[in-house]
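Problem statement: downstream parser choked on a complex file, so we are re-checking the raw output for the iron/sulfur cluster run. The parser issue turned out to be on our end (a line-ending mismatch), but while we're here, posting the original submission so the record is complete.
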Amino acid sequence: MELRNDEWDDISDSELLHIEIDPHCSDHPPQPSCSGTVTRKDIPSSPSSLHRTEECLDKRIIERDEERGEKRKRNSEGGHSPLLRFMKRHLSVTQLCEQTWCEMKVEYGFRKPQIRKTEKQRTEVQTGAKIHLARELEVHTVVPLHAQSREDSFAIRLLNILHMIPKLEAGKCVREIPVFGVVEGVHLKGVIDELSYNQKGELVLNELKTRRQETLPGAAQSLGHSLQVGLYKILFDGMVRGGLRREHIIDHFKLKASMALGNEIQKHSAKIGIQVTTLGELVDTLLMVLSCTDVPRIDLLQIEYRHQDSNNLIGSRVVPYDEAQLRSELQGYLAYWTGQREPRGVDIEEAWKCRMCPYDQICVWRKNRSQAPEILHTNK
Ligand code: SF4
């Protein structure tokens, strides 16, 4: 489980993706440890600490979400692109995957933050968060750190990445890996569930999904899952290929590079061998490490479905990766975010999705669809 901070997204992408789009699917169950993975090299790993802010951040985040919800409401009539209207400096992989389910639902999520918040507070989400943390603790040690500023919050994320790179270099398994970058002109962020090496030495991304019913997901859900892991690969590969730029972090997120990091952050950085006093120095360190690392690109994308109650394996599938096709799909989704087209609701063939949607009573798309005249097709 990662830092709960709105600058990055509250919890792992997979949690939100599942909870919100699948009535039978919640979160990740405890997973066997990665001790069976093949070690590629015999390099000692870095200290095994993972950074955290304290729980008190959650309250501040909720309050800020409420304020932002109000501002977004005021901006909603502004005629700008959704990115501007909803004050998004970045998109999360989760949001893009939700879009594959229903674009109108994503739009309503911003327009009606209270409904969305209620969705997030469902028991399955809370259970999912706990399961995620339990899984993460199998391979990481948690170190609570108090973030005093946005710069501190970003620093914690960057420290997490810096901590995981040597582990990957040593052929170890890592979980909850923050990834980010600019793809098709838009800043994206996400959190990869797990990376480990298989017996062939391939770097495998494993996304674990748990389901309330012991069945595999249908095509509509699988579409979002495939997009999710594909985007993770694009982001991760971009990072380890040295594709990140200083301005992607500092300028885009309007961070103060010269601002001194909090005492706790500085002390912990020093403890794990990273001597920095400002966020700018930390960003430079990260970029240098990423440009030098020999961590490979992800070779295999895999999704594992498990039954939440029994933890039985329902099935797993390898997701094919075609970057050109993925980018083309992404462009289609981003056209909504950048204001090139209006949001779309679900087609009549997928009207069943509306029955489980929290916005079904207010959704204009649904209303218009139900009022549309039936068309009778006759042969001439
Ligand atoms: S009611 Fe249907 S079309 Fe409207 S947001 Fe929900 S799923 Fe989408």
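For whoever reads this later: The longest helix spans residues 219-240.
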